[in-house]
Amino acid sequence: MNDSRDLQPVPPQESRRPKRNLFAFLEGWLYLLPSIILFGVFVFYPMFRTIYLSFFLADQMGPFEFVGLENYQYILSSDSFQSSVKATILFVLYTVPAGILLALFLALLTNEKIKGIGIFRTLFSSTMGMSVAASSVIWMFMYNPSIGVFSRIAEWLGFPAIQWLQDPDYALLAVSLSTVWMNAGFAYLIILGGLQNIDTHLYENAKVAGVSYLYQLRRITLPMLSPTLFFIVTVSFINSFQTFGQIDILTKGGPVESTNVIVYSIYKDAFINNDVGSASAQAVILFFCVLLLTALQFKLGERKVHYQ
Amino acid sequence: MKRLLAGLSVLFVLFLTACSSTDSASGTTEDGKTEIIFWHAMGGELEASVNEIVDEYNSSQDKYTVKPVYQGSYEESLTKLNTVAGTADAPAVTQIFEAGTKQMIDSGNIQPVQKFIDEENYDTSQWEENISSYYQVDGEQYSMPFNSSTPVLAYNKDAFKEAGLDPEQAPRTYSELKDAAEKLTIKEGDKTSQYGLSILNYGWFFEELLATQGGMFVDNENGREGEATKASFNDEKGQKVFELISDMYEEGTFYNSGQNWDDMRASFQTGTMAMMLDSSAGIKGLVDNADFEVGVAYLPHPDDVDPQGVIIGGASLWMAKDIEENQQQAAWDFMKYLSTAEVQAKWHVESGYFAINPAAYEKDIVKQEWEKYPQLKVTVDQLHDTVPSTVTQGALISIFPEARQQIVTGMESLYQGEDPKAALDKAAAEVDTVLEKGSRSR
Predict the structure, then answer these.
(1) B244 assigned to some structural domain
(2) Are residues B140 and B156 in the same domain?
(3) CB-side exposure of B9: number of CA atoms within 13 Å?
(4) Of the partner residues A147, A254, A272, the one whose CB lies closest to the CB of residue B75
(5) Chain centroid to CA A62: how far?
(6) What range defines the domain where residue B178 resides?
(7) Looking at the structure, do residues B79 and B54 belong to the same domain, yes or no?
(8) pLDDT in tens, chain B (442 residues)
(9) Angstroms from A165 CA to nearest CA on chain B
(10) CDD domains from the xrefs (chain B) (predicted)?
(11) Integer-rounded Cα radius of gyration of chain B
């Protein structure tokens, strides 16, 4: 913004103001236009179309019979959807806290100025550069009961080999573990960035006062980091609700639907079972759940956030 | 920065315009040839094979050019087809798996090949009847069979010898199967180093094990006499299949190999289990990759039934309706070429899929191949021994993909100790609901 004109006092020429306002208004819209078009085409239109389709029986060619709320009734009364909700909630609980704590721990470790720390920083953030598909295939091999490294370790320790991905008791846990690993890089990088932004004077003062490390962590680091943490918690929640790739590759929603999270169930209904109406209704339900959760987070969580 | 932004926005506009001007899927090339698009789902080595066959076709005549496009798995390519079907952009020829047959017929976007058979008095009796009948409804040939396979029992001959079993005498009945599996299972303490049998958690195997007993998957003669309204696989025949799995799993002779074909084959090759059900199309690769001798036998059946044989699996080729006449002619010409004995012989040898034209089995390359892989002949024999009926024609329902998921969920719940009858009834109830919903489609 090199327009110095904005900084100068506006001359008191009332008659010219409406015209300039209109111009500024249009100019503003012009700047917004690219993003409005992008959002409109790729976010808002699909969203409203999904809500519309959820009231119809529809296949991939489009809607063909208006049924009102029948799709919703069918979903809410089906066992399959209930197990999807359960799997989704469990998945979020397994991945979000563990992922953030792990990232926070690693970030605190590497926030020191030590020789060679760059190597560790690169290592810890490297999962960000891996595609979900590639990492899932690697994890799939590791979980393989015949040739995978996990069964080798179990065997070596004298435990019976677990069929991680074929056993409904472990499958969700196994997928969660790989997800934590995949998401750790991103969370780590954001948190490390947040840590680096904290004013070093605060730590120098703490040193002079001679407080313990834990006290310093509780009273300086975490409060100063809270905007970053708030951001990463919100983003992780939303990401976790929308996880798809690793489930498609590792378990396909099985065994006994134990990893059939809502997003995967939407995919199956829309693209395999050709039941777009039911898929849309599930998408709408998921949308409102995530919306509600995010709103709650802003209402409750943000109070504790300390902005400088 | 500004320049970068400007550059980006230009790129974006270019991207948008590129999106809006879709290339026409088929057309006429500059040299006056008619070009058609052929969508298929043959990945890996099979893709190379398909490309080679298409190249040979293109150079064998100068009227038509076929462009093969790999579209991912069967499910993926069906999904993609649904988005363009009925428009001018639809590919002239698409390969669709057997479970998508009813969906294709109902879509109304396909041209039954019967029209061309009638126009030319094309002799369909040269085709293998057990294969082509799957794609016939009310006497009308809808699609052109292309790659067909059936399930077989594959077993480790070396393990048979070690267990004191006759490696040339594979189990045929359920009690023989259980007996052999028990002898093949090797336990060390509380660990099992070799299991007897494994069946992939995949609906197709259940359908086959049901059909070989003469069981129907759905009512109305498997949906071939009229629209299917109810699942019928939860009768005592279906229960026998689920009981077999459940019993053997409880006895510790059955290995749960999940839902992934490659995982199952890897486990078989590393000796985790000594017997498994596999597709006839996978046999050649299995023989090549195993460091032991692989035996192949017919699908097992319960003790007291007369085996009816198998239902055909695999895929067929469908012609699009709303394309130009000359493109349909090109598609038909290409299909005819594919069904010649020469091409089918090559295809059978390279892929392990059946020849839809039995004359191919008389070709030298097939005879040589069978000497090298006698296992391939077993798969063909099993198909020839099949008794043609609505049972072995297979079910005709549009909701097949979902029905298969329900069967898989049922199979998986067996490993959790679910009662076989309860698991089957639950799957049947789900399928009934979906059938009811599906009947309301356009």
Answers:
(1) yes
(2) no
(3) 11
(4) A272
(5) 30
(6) 151-309+399-438
(7) yes
(8) 556 556 656 555 555 555 444 444 445 665 678 899 999 998 877 888 899 999 999 999 988 999 999 998 888 888 888 888 878 788 999 999 988 888 888 888 889 999 999 988 888 888 888 888 888 888 889 999 888 888 999 999 999 999 999 999 999 999 999 999 999 999 887 778 899 999 999 999 999 999 999 999 999 889 888 888 999 999 999 999 999 999 999 999 999 988 888 888 888 998 989 999 999 888 888 898 899 999 999 999 999 889 999 998 889 999 998 888 889 999 999 999 998 999 999 998 888 888 888 888 888 889 998 898 888 889 889 988 888 888 888 888 888 888 998 999 999 999 989 999 999 999 999 999 888 887 776 5
(9) 8
(10) PBP2_UgpB
(11) 24
Copy the structure tokens of residue B192.
């099992």
- Domain check: are B155 and B46 in the same one? no
Q: How many contacts, defined by CB atoms under 8 Å, are there between A and B? A: 79
- Tell me what percent of chain A is helix, strand and coil, each rounded to the nearest 5: 75, 5, 25
DSSP secondary structure string, B275-307?
EEEEEGGGHHHHHHH-SSPEEEEPPPB-TTS--
Interface of A with B (CB under 8 A): 34, 57, 59-61, 64-65, 74, 80, 144-147, 160-161, 163, 165-168, 251-252, 254-257, 268, 271-275
CATH of the domain at B236: 3.40.190.10
Q: Report d(CA B349, CA B56) in Å as an integer.
A: 16
Asked if B82 and A57 come within 8 Å (Cβ–Cβ), the reply is no
- Nearest alpha-carbon partner for B333 in B21, B35, B128: B35
* Residue at B191 is within a domain: yes
Question: Would you say B153 and B298 are in contact if contact means Cβ atoms under 8 Å apart?
Answer: yes
User: Which residue ranges make up each domain of chain A?
Assistant: 13-66, 78-304
Domain-located, residue B119: yes
Q: B82 and A255: CB-CB below 8 Å?
A: no
Q: Say which of B263, B416, B434 has its CB closest to residue A256.
A: B416
> B190 contacts in A (CB within 8 Å)?
160
Let me know whether B40 and B177 are in one domain. Answer: no
Q: Is residue B323 part of a domain?
A: yes
Architecture of domain A78-304: Orthogonal Bundle (1.10)
Of B354, B372, B390, the residue that ends a domain is B372
Which of A30, A59, A67, A159 is the mutation pick for testing B, counting most B CBs within 10 A?
Answer: A59
State the best of A142, A152, A164, A272 to mutate against chain B, taking most chain B CBs within 10 Å.
A272
